[in-house]
Design goal:
Hypothetical protein af1432; 3 domains; 6-stranded mixed β-sheet; 8 strands
Amino acid sequence: MSWLPCPQGPEWKIDWEQIDSLSWIQRMKNCPQNPERHAEGDVWTHVHMVCEALVNLPSWRALPENVRPILFAASLLHDVAKPICTRQEADGSYSSRGHSWRGAVMARKILWQKNYPFQIREQIAALVRHHLVPFYLVEAHNAQKLTIEISQTVPCTWLSILAEADARGRICPDPDRLLRQIDHFREYARQQQCYESPFPFSSGNSRFRFFHGDEVEKDPVVYQNPGNIDRDPEGPHVYLMSGLPSAGKDYWIRNHLPKMKVICLDAIRSELGVPYADPNGEVIVKARNLAKEYLTQKESFIWNATNLTRFVRSDCIGFFLRSDAKITLIYVESSPDKIQQNNRNRNKRVPDGVMNRVLDRWEVPEISEAHEVFWYVGNQMITEKPE
């Protein structure tokens, strides 16, 4: 990761000269923060302080050599979206609502464009997305579900270290309260059996039912025993594709499920003459009517579309679950250069404006979203996202 050089012992010195030259770091300069919570000044100053706090934490230095760079990159990127999310309120204070979610999307895009390894990139994005959770978990109404969900994507131990650096890398009136909240997060994750490793679901079915079924409020220990609720769906098998335009979803279908029926939203869009930049309501209506026929007949099929946001995927999955379908989520990814090449070779090229818009809301599927989730990156299957 020479692009983001991670400090090494025994000096543990950060190469700010190289890091500060990055455009997304430069944008943090002069971005205001609420002085009550960040008396240190702008976002750039805060990020510097967080990184310095991180590399001085014994818990960070004790991490394996291949893990320390992941948390260091997350500390640099954790507030990357504040410049575009910061607003001045009517009372004169500043807020940056949504910056953790938006920051995860921006981090993913930045690291993808630098060809970071998929698993490392997604760990960094998960840390950015969840970096505020240890501060408010004590007040969250869905603390159990949220903690277990985080454990499926990134170790809670790592998140607690990042949060401690975030707390120490600021000037605020109550730093001890922030550190107590982080300790509460650590203890709560231990109680849920998911502090150092993912919560051990008995199967993909039990994991899916915990996050999507009616039993979410029950003791999660129930989901560790396959004899309790590990029921197979009785409906058809639906393969939900996901991936950027021109990532290779059609290629994957031709090579893995060539005989299965496909509902392709691009094909319907072309049939109806709907441009890429236009709303796709008419396309969705026709696609769903066709899906209803297959679901009623209990016939398995592929739903082929970009499905790049969790909201869109959740909406599709909810629709399929009405027929008790088994959902397999297939995510396909290619490098920026390969996507540009594929896009140039398409019969109908995706406009650059459309591509930029989808990149700005790009969320890679997580293992909790379906009965099965598989990630194919550069035509190679990633057996699991890192834990």
